[in-house]
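Hi there, hope your week has been kind to you so far. No rush at all, and the record is pasted right below.
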Amino acid sequence: MKQLFIICFLSVAILMLHGQDSQADQYKPYEYEYSTTQLKKFTKKHVKRAGQELAEMDRIISQGPFSASFESLSGHATPEWYKDAKLGIFFDWGLYSIAGYGEKGWSRARYPDWYLNRMNGPYKEYHHRVWGENFQRDDFIGLFNAEKFDATEVVQLVRSAGAKYMVPFSKHHDGFCLWDSDFTQRDVVDMNPGRDLTRELIEACEQAGIYHGFYFSVDEYEYPVLVDNEFKLRLWSKDMAPDNAGIVEMEGEIITDFKADIHDKLVSGKVPVYKFLDQYIIPQAKDFIDKYDPDILWFDGEWQRPAEYYKTPEIVAYFYNQAEGRKEVAANDRWGKGTREHGGDFYTSETDEVVEKTNYTWEENRSMSESYGYNRTDSLENYLTANELIEMLVRIVAKGGNLNLIVNPEGSGKIPKLQVDLLSELGNWLSLNGEAIYATRPYESLCDNTQLGQPVWYTGSKDSTYGYAIIFDWPKSETFICANANIKWDTEVYMLGWDKPLQWVDRGKRWGVSVKIPEEMLGKTGNRPCKYAWVLKFEHDINDEY
């Protein structure tokens, strides 16, 4: 009987492994109704509409307070709501989520959302084994059915996690748009799944009181262009050119020959244009802003060329001016090569969070695992624990930043249970301790060193009335030691979630403040307000040179 069980178990395992190695066997190649050369019949109308949109942009910019210069745009104030929000959700979902693959390890696994570019390069062997040698990039379009995507459920999860804004990946570097774009047919309405997924998310966000953003890549791996009325392919960089391709540089752009049998499976639905920026990127960005009225403009893909090339200052100026006097909006700093930390309303870091507390606004973009984009190889071992996730948020907020936490749905739109569980833990903690996070600013001291065995991080209320000491290790003694808590004399100290004041003693500059733990909380079965990161609230002695 035991041998029979083992044989059955091995048979199931072999079948499962075989299934993993033949995911595309049951699918037919995806063919869009128009080839790239056939899409040229839309070019004239497309180019005319683009010209009209650019003229309208110029008119709005000329009438508004912000011109398309760095000097003018630097005068835009970062919204208070953004500074107060502290936690957002970066919804990293696209065609690449169907493949859901990145090798493990920080150096390679971080970007499964680059799979569509790497499937014929570093991941070629894996792709051929799993999807087949004939399975091309745009065949993933036929599988992008969003069958388990429910915008209301997603936004409810965002809200219950304690996030105040959400930035969906509206268009990643392959150019597939998750909205109904008027400047391409490579989108979720003209192609699969035949639904405006962005509209669904934004309506759910607005109903739930969640600010929403527009993630927009200003460059793409490839785009069909017309040069002397001949079809060519514009490339992001020379590294993305096929072997033995004839490459020329024209006005800073990398151009190669267009080969329909190859490239039609890379650029399905992209209407050929003469000018990539003026007739595609800029009017497409304006179209989104007009249709969906985002609160945040989140550029990406900008590192290859300068902002003057991408004309992102023009897009930002339009974004600011169309919102002026109506709503407060924010733009990130990824405008072009060299602009990070030097443009926009907030600086964006990426798993290399700012080390010290800052006097400028910044945002850390980080996944709960090692991966940007869904990665089927992720497991419990390479995810943060709930305690680590909460500590990361606290650490970032203490240093003056926001956390834009990446959520990586599967291709179907389903969010993995590991992520749902972590978001639930984070939301539970914030529901009790959010006062120490939301609408706070860096405290006079960032943290205590760990030589006392109690890592403590500090935040402060905007008006400096209160300080918050956030303690991650429950002490073995009967006291909390907060070396840098500057408490106003003859006031009370409270633990968030506990309605009685705690006894405390000022032990001088070397040892700081000692706060007695209530007897009810002592021991392994103590009645503590939460499982992680306990917060002490105190009146801040702003006039003391502590």
Remarks:
- Residues 440-539 form a domain with the Immunoglobulin-like fold (CATH 2.60.40.1180).
- The CA atoms of residues 452 and 481 lie 8 Å apart.
- The chain has two domains: 55-218+276-435, 440-539.
- Residues 43-63 form the longest helix (21 residues).
